[in-house]
Specification:
By secondary structure, this protein is of the alpha/beta class. It has 11 helices and 10 strands. The protein has 2 domains: 233 residues, 3-Layer(aba) Sandwich (Rossmann fold), CATH 3.40.50.300; 45 residues, no CATH class. It is globular.
Length: 290
């Protein structure tokens, strides 16, 4: 049983198991703490239990055993509606959460839960449509949007309610470079406002560069938890999770093979760039002295 304390993490997952009705074991003894304002990545092969795990957070599924605490309160005592006020879950497939007749109605319906009056509701809806560059689509059916725009609408329909915790399932999947850049700006803005952000992703380069902490999952278990650059630079762990090493790690390994032995300490793009610049400077100095 959890001892209540003001210093506890925002999310505490204790000894959580989940078994689907058909007998499939999806989660095994999950223990995880996430602090307020933290950004956490969840990675692993398909079927590792990533989506099952995040769906336990807002009560879409309830653990077979174990406990989950949000803001010191056991989620077992909360309804899905109550949990959804604090936890915004954006699905991988936008069609799983978009249902209104128009883009405007989608935002309007989401904001109604905030008990705004009619005038306030319309003002806030217009603001959200403008901020997400969706105003030109306000009368269009969500079903007639492009993949990128429908994903943007799904995100807008959740963020407009200002939940304390944002959970994204594969937000960069099928997105082009411009859309990914826009998403990065969005999560940076939300993080500056103190939001706690959890992101399921297979995008190694995105995680390596923008997510500070990552857990790896395999067969319903957490097999690694730590700074993303450490986790994703581990060849054993990435192979076990069916991920590829980040490009910077691949480059440093290639350079080691041709004689740059101490480059192993270089982790990020900036590290490798600095290493190569210093190497060339030293090489130039030696040539000039000769």
């Amino acid at each position: 049983m959890l001892t209540i304390s003001k210093d506890l993490p925002l999310i505490i997952i204790e000894d959580v198991d989940y078994v689907y009705p058909n007998g499939t074991v999806a989660l095994k003894n999950i223990n995880l703490n996430v602090h307020k304002g933290e950004m956490l990545g969840i990675m692993g092969k398909n079927g590792a239990g990533k989506t099952t795990l995040i769906r336990t957070l807002n009560g879409l599924i309830r653990p077979t055993s174990g406990d989950i605490y949000i803001n010191n309160e056991n989620t077992n005592s909360k309804s899905i509606a109550e949990l959804s006020k604090n936890i915004g879950l954006i699905f991988q497939n936008p069609s799983h959460q978009l249902f209104a007749n128009s883009v405007e109605d989608e935002i309007n319906f989401s904001l109604k839960n905030l008990y705004l009056n009619k005038e306030e509701l319309q003002i806030k809806t217009n603001e959200i449509l403008k901020n997400f560059n969706l105003d030109k689509y306000r009368d269009r059916s969500p079903l007639n949007l492009s993949g990128g725009e429908s994903k943007k609408l799904a995100i807008a329909s959740i963020i407009c309610r200002a939940p304390e915790i944002l959970v994204f399932d594969e937000p960069t999947l099928g997105q082009d470079a411009r859309e990914i850049e826009s998403f990065i700006k969005l999560i940076n803005t939300e993080k500056e406002e103190g939001k706690t952000i959890i992101i399921i992703t297979h995008n190694v380069e995105f995680a390596f560069e923008f997510i500070p902490r990552t857990i790896l999952m395999e067969s319903g278990e957490i097999i690694a938890d730590g700074p993303t650059q450490n986790v994703l630079n581990n060849n054993f762990l990435t192979e076990r999770s069916s991920l590829i090493l980040p490009q910077t790690r691949q480059l440093s390994l290639a350079l080691q093979k041709i004689g740059f032995q101490d480059i192993n300490k270089a982790v990020s793009k900036n590290d490798i760039t600095e290493y190569l610049i210093n190497f060339l400077r030293n090489k130039t100095t030696i040539v000039q002295e000769e």
